[in-house]
Amino acid sequence: MHLDTITFSLPLLATATETADSSLILAAVLLSIVVIYLASKVGGELLSRFGLPPVLGELVGGVVVGISVLHLLVFPEGGAESSSSLIMTFLQTTAGLTPDAADAVFTAQSEVISVLSELGVIILLFEIGLESNIKDLIAVGTQAAVVAVVGVVVPFTAGTVGLMTLFGIPAIPAIFAGAALTATSIGITSKVLSELGRLNSKEGQIILGAAVIDDVLGIIVLAVVASLAKEGSVDVTKVIYLIISASSFLLGAIFLGNIFSKTFVAIASSLKTRGGLVIPAFIFAFVMAYFAAAIQLEAILGSFAAGLVLDETDERVELQKQVIPIADMLVPIFFVTVGAKTDLGVLNPAIPSNREGLVMAIFLLVVAIAGKLVTGFSVFGQPQINRLAIGVGMIPRGEVGLVFLGIGSSIGILSKPLEAAIIMMVILTTFLAPPLLRFVFPEPETAATATDQLILDDSSGKSLVMESPDSQDTK
Amino acid sequence: MHLDTITFSLPLLATATETADSSLILAAVLLSIVVIYLASKVGGELLSRFGLPPVLGELVGGVVVGISVLHLLVFPEGGAESSSSLIMTFLQTTAGLTPDAADAVFTAQSEVISVLSELGVIILLFEIGLESNIKDLIAVGTQAAVVAVVGVVVPFTAGTVGLMTLFGIPAIPAIFAGAALTATSIGITSKVLSELGRLNSKEGQIILGAAVIDDVLGIIVLAVVASLAKEGSVDVTKVIYLIISASSFLLGAIFLGNIFSKTFVAIASSLKTRGGLVIPAFIFAFVMAYFAAAIQLEAILGSFAAGLVLDETDERVELQKQVIPIADMLVPIFFVTVGAKTDLGVLNPAIPSNREGLVMAIFLLVVAIAGKLVTGFSVFGQPQINRLAIGVGMIPRGEVGLVFLGIGSSIGILSKPLEAAIIMMVILTTFLAPPLLRFVFPEPETAATATDQLILDDSSGKSLVMESPDSQDTK
Asked: Which letter does DSSP use for residue B343 in this model?
């Protein structure tokens, strides 16, 4: 009797439910990761057989397992409920998940996968930073800045003015849609360049530098238009704060980083236990990512800066080697998740607002592509450069475009057709850019750098061996 | 006016809060990982200078940053609130976290870190499986089974009878406390053996095999005593189900695994994109971990079985190399989290129930140590074997002991002093075992295996180079 009373008292039941949940959350996360890995490998391998960048296959694989088709990997932000997730249904039939607990497990699993995906893009940009050379980036700094500014001003102006004059959209939503046209997805662009072995070409460095500057500009543009939409006026203090904090962060990271990189090598070489190189490197990368996020920039800018700084150290080659398997494990989670969250429902012509949005979408798509293509022709003093490739490299909007859209929706200023048009523009630029980039960079470079080889040859398993002499040199 | 109405409608506000949360959750996770890495490296390096196993340093580092001392890394399961987490306070002052949102961010961050920690121990056991040889394990199978059974029966009987006769504890709580004495922490034991380079010694293989069998026995014992405590009788069907499912899982995994391992090599060698080896390996490991969890065993048994199977393939050496940095990144999260969740408050003599529990704790500790030490003397047909080392290897209760305790608390059958006594026993066995193991395995083996060298030499960064000829041989 006494025992029964205790067993059924509320707080104890709650504890029991929590215990049950934690193993079910783990089971749900394990299944989600398996689905993500299958989607990334099937998609990536299939598309690479057709000569297309594997990352496009990961995005498409994500679309197939996500909200648009199979409903294996869905997220509550997209309005999905636990009952629409096939993984939850599977857990209910195989692992004894009760319908009552399903919502809590679904929310927790989605949070964990979202964070893993964000860690994935943080590691990706860290790796891209490690592969890039800070001096090369500074050398193309002015060209990159011009490309970034042109790539923000042209699509923004053309998009806003066009929507207002051609479609009669009111000023504020038109400005917001114009702002969504300015973004460039660093993640997608840098990954494709790395896959093509072009990250360290002059074009690659300009695109990467411009994408970084574009990210900072995009954050400032977003702050401006969001405060304009919310309060009807621009919060000048915030804009000045963002400009100052972004500039000081990037410059400060590089200057302080150069001092810190010596300390880093000293610390890493004094450590005797396992992970003596990778753990200090990740402490640095994650602290920088945190700082970037805390001053309202993006976390990936911090890990990119950390990678750039550590690329200057003697541990570079060994660190790159160790980061490769970690990136292989976490980066696909990011791209598959981006694909899974993409709702192709907006392309369905049966829904009226989609039909209304279609003409606007075509207009936005033209502006989105043309507005970035012109950036290539703004590059000066480089007669030999592949201008088309630079323009194409700036095209994908990816997750950055979706962030703009998410904030626009949350403020509630976008009409349904305009929202659908922006989503279509984001999807098409994201999925068109990788094959276009492949097309404008037709042949692999004959004199690929050691780093590029390391990446390209990775699947053969021989790359680590090939790199051995280098790594001994750096000791 | 229209705009205001929309801005303040409830669902839209909720969306805005969610957007804000997701970047704050990421910031909280990044800070937690930085704290974990600092704790693991400072603790691990300090203790390794004193000749102690680094993993003990990670546990101690976890205690320092956790609920017992600094309150940087606390978890809601331990009854902590978001206001007691220093990371949450830090986010409130640096990243604009509002007190209202703090609870949600705290819960999400704790869930993510808990899952990362569980992924860490899954990867650890996968790596241990890769380092172990299935034939060696089967060769010592009978001895391991005897060690496991003796190590369950002796502490269980001595503990239960002692608590009933010496301390007058009623039968059911005494049986539960006796059951908590049977566990062995595979994670801690295998990690220490690996660090000492003794995993592939005969003693190491017996300990590992016995710890695996012990884990299965522990799950069965737990099911028996939990149903005894809840319903007053033993659910025989469930016990039979567990015995059959556990045996079929382990045997089935190995037999099916042998067939699958050929398919695995064929798939892995046909993949041309990045991660072509590590992703298929993790798909296999996570599917096995899921199956193990779904049939109410532990996820780590699944990944251990997957590692054992893949150790039989030609890709073994290359896979081990690639898993090392991933394990270096994730495994410390597990050990630091175990330390952080350990509440040393039970050792505080100012609390009455702790004083009452102290004598019981001493009794339980003696039974816990003596009951496992005798297992070494149950090994037959091995005159040369280090019996003391086997006994000591079975001592740490670690996270498995805490699982028993958690279920006992949730059923509500343990008195405060008895609960405190069990926690003290778990803490002391966990923290005493690594230095004791170091002591009973005094000198490193002269003829360490290649795998052990790979691990031991990892910090020098030269191991990958040293291994190059092997990896070429396997191609």
From this structure: -
CA distances from B284 to A30, B246, B256 (A): 11, 19, 12
Smallest CA-to-CA distance from A21 within A82, A86, A84, A76 is with A82
Q: Are A192 and A250 members of one domain?
A: yes
- Please name the residue of chain B whose CA is at the shortest distance from the CA of residue A27: B290
Closest by Cα among B177, B184, B221 to B415: B177
Per the structure, the count of domains in chain B is: 2
Give CA angle at B473 (B472, B475), nearest 5°: 65
- To the nearest whole angstrom, how far is the Cα of B231 from the nearest Cα of chain A? 9
Contact between B111 and A112 using a beta-carbon 8 Å cutoff: yes
pLDDT tens-place string over residues A291-324 = 988 887 888 889 999 998 998 888 899 999 999 9
Partner-chain contact B45 A322, CB within 8 Å:
no
Residues B387, B405 within the same domain:
yes
* Residue A26 CA: distances (Å) to CA of A31, A329, A452, B114: 9, 17, 36, 9
Closest CA to A123 of A267, A412, A320, A389: A320
Q: A146 with A33, same domain?
A: no
CB contacts of B113 in chain A (<8 Å) are: none
Smallest CA-to-CA distance from B55 within B139, B110, B124, B131 is with B124
In a domain, B40, yes or no: yes
Residues of chain B with Cβ-Cβ distance to A290 below 8 Å are 27, 30-31, 34
Nearest CA-CA distance, residue A462 and chain B, Å: 8
Which residue range is the domain that position B305 belongs to? 125-473
CB contact under 8 A, B277 and A26: no
Distance CA B294, CA A27 (A): 8
Judge: A293–B30 Cβ closer than 8 Å, yes or no.
yes
- Give B93-130 pLDDT, tens digit per residue: 888 888 888 888 999 999 999 999 999 999 999 999 99
Give the helix ranges, DSSP H, for B50-85.
54-65
CB contact set of A100 (below 8 Å; sequence gap of 6+): none
Report how far residue B215's alpha carbon sits from residue B201's, in angstroms, rounded to the nearest whole number. 21
Q: Are A394 and A458 in contact, with CB atoms under 8 Å apart?
A: no
ipTM of the complex: 0.86
Q: Which residue of A has its CA nearest to B107?
A: A108
Q: Domain check: are A63 and A190 in the same one?
A: no
Confirm if B364 and B425 have CB atoms less than 8 A apart.
yes
Q: Which of B33, B273, B462 sits opposite A54 (nearest CB)?
A: B273
Query: Tens digits of per-residue pLDDT, B224-257?
Result: 887 787 777 777 887 888 888 888 887 888 788 7
pTM: 0.86
